[in-house]
Amino acid sequence: MSSASEFALIDRHFRRAPRHADVRLGVGDDAAIIAPAPGCELAISVDMLVEGRHFFAGTDPVALGHKTLAVNLSDLAAMGARPRFALLAGALPEADEAWLTRFMEGFRALADAHDVELIGGDTTRGPRNLCVTIIGEVPSGQALTRAGAQAGDDVYVSGTLGGAALGVAAVRGDIELDRATLTLVRERLERPTPRVALGLALRGIATAAIDLSDGLTGDLTHILEQSHCGARIALAEIPGDPALAAHARDTGLGLRCLLAGGDDYELCFTAPAALRARVAGAAQSSGVRCTRIGSITSGAGLVVLDAQDHALAHVPAAFDHFAAA
Fold this sequence. Notes:
Oligomer: single chain
Largest sheet: 6 strands, mixed
Helix content: 25-40%
Number of domains: 2
Structural class: alpha+beta
Strand order of the largest sheet: 8-10-7-11-9-12
Radius of gyration: 20 Å
CATH class of the largest domain: Alpha Beta
Strand content: 15-25%
Number of strands: 12
CATH topology of the largest domain: Phosphoribosyl-aminoimidazole Synthetase, Chain A, domain 2
CATH superfamily of the largest domain: PurM-like C-terminal domain
Number of helices: 9
Order of helices and strands: HEEEHEHEEEHHHEHEHEHEE
CATH architecture of the largest domain: Alpha-Beta Complex
């Protein structure tokens, strides 16, 4: 049920005059009206963050505002789409003005950095639950998908993997980290960097792409399934977060963080071996490290090779909302 306080919250924290001419009508009506750029297709994605499942209770609201938008920008990055508009819906346990002010500080800072306009949304009372619908544009026919990988393509990942998962383990008390390391891995967990510039630079180069939200093994498998192919990747080539150095990356916790930890929001993509120089150029122009970790095969399934070039007998399973305890 709507209330005056709900509309007051919307006016104070979410409404701003449209900043772009292609926003015909923004926050404050029953629906937003936008005009897509000529020659472009719309890329639309939605992600939900639930307290206790996707973020810890007590997470700094500025960081949470950042992450709420970042995970959606990461989806558009994997499609090679330029972010344009966002809708934000939230269930909140109470109308906490101070919390909302700080949350929107983090949300708007990232939105402004990527020229994203908030054009609508919804609020209600309930357990803390945040949901963004993101809308981006990509020139017709140029979107990256999960379905284009071919045998012989190289497999790449951006950045480093495993730091966010190590942060989760530390906050849960599964492992003890020194204060400096804990600060770094919590930053990776709570303030991920969406690789939007890299996604744009990979148009016309990558044959398939996905963002790493649930873990490398699971997310790469989505590419393999939709591209009807297999892959062989080398454990030694996967760029691990520096914080994993103290934890054997080929056994136990280190291996799970590296291969199946999730929350990295890096890009995993494939590209023809003949285009390695262009991949390097895309990495340089976007300022993001890209590492070749293996290749696409004509078979099926994912094989992870150890330092002796032997297939791992057990590959950690990626996160699954309905399979996880």
